[in-house]
Amino acid sequence: MGSSVSIFGCGWLGVTLSQFLINEGYTVRGTVRSAAAQANLADKGIEAHHYDLGLGKIPKPLLDSDYWIFAIPFRRNLVVPDIYRQQCRHFAEEALSYRMPQKFIFTSSTLVYGSDNNWKKESSEEFLPDLRPQILKETETVFLDSFAEYAYIFRLAGLYGDGREVSGMRKKSTKSAGPINLISAVNASQAILYAIQHQLRHHIYNIVEPFHPDRKLLEFKNAGELPNSQIYKIVSSALFREESGLAFPSTIHLS
Question: pTM (2 decimals)?
């Protein structure tokens, strides 16, 4: 293959994606924020670099890659959430002062869609009830404007997989019952690999499995305590699935 991919924010999803890429013959470079994480990436055949968004310069070897995947998450503990958008804008400016990649993929989130009990697709009018979804949508715009025709936005649903099983989630949920949107790390990785290897017709895609289990049927520790009222959204990935031929099969087993 001879091509290279940089994953900015090579965490849990990035490691899974890297294995797909390495198996396809790509050289993979990834960023992490600790020495221990660097050693872990190196053990998996990934060229690891330290980089913390908003702190320090982007390591130049990362910008030499043909394809850039931006998977640095929008952390919930930011005191000023808009810092994320500002940092992403600075990242784009610094990176583009060096070169333009063949493709730039931002792993965004279905968080941009509000929960108003409707189906959501890429052309839906966003229902953004609070600050975080608005900032994430604005960050998407930053990347689309900066990288133009080379930019692709993948709105990922809730991720699960090895080490992050849906049935093993123990974070207390205060949301209501109703269908939820999920995507396995394997399915998400296959979608990104497809995007790298093929010409895409659009620039924004929902990456979601077509199976939308009811929250009450999953083994959240307080699932039985969830209110019966249903406030939800169902996000469709038909656009990407029909274009790519990927089915996004679910591996969720309901109890």
Answer: 0.91
The Cα diameter of the chain in Å comes to 54
Q: How far is CA 141 from CA 106, 112, 117, 126, 212, in A?
A: 11, 12, 25, 13, 28
Query: Which domains, and CATH codes, for the chain?
Result: 73-244 (3.40.50.720)
* 10-36: burial string, b at 16+ Cβ within 10 Å, e else: bbebbbbbbbbbeeeebbbbbbbeeee
Kindly report, residue by residue over 201-227, the tens digit of the pLDDT.
999 999 999 999 887 777 554 445 545
pLDDT digits (tens, 9 = 90+) for 68-77: 999 999 987 7
In angstroms, the CA 79 to CA 83 distance is 9
Torsion angle, alpha carbons of 213, 162, 68, 54, to 10: 90
Mean pLDDT of the 89-99 span = 97
State the pLDDT at residue 170: 44
CA gap 253, 218 in Å, rounded: 9
Q: How many CB atoms lie within 10 A of CB 123?
A: 8
Angle (CA) 43 10 130, round 5°:
155
Distance CA 180, CA 212 (A): 5
Q: Please name the residues in contact with 9: beta carbons below 8 A apart, sequence gap of 6 or more.
A: 31, 53, 70, 71, 72, 73
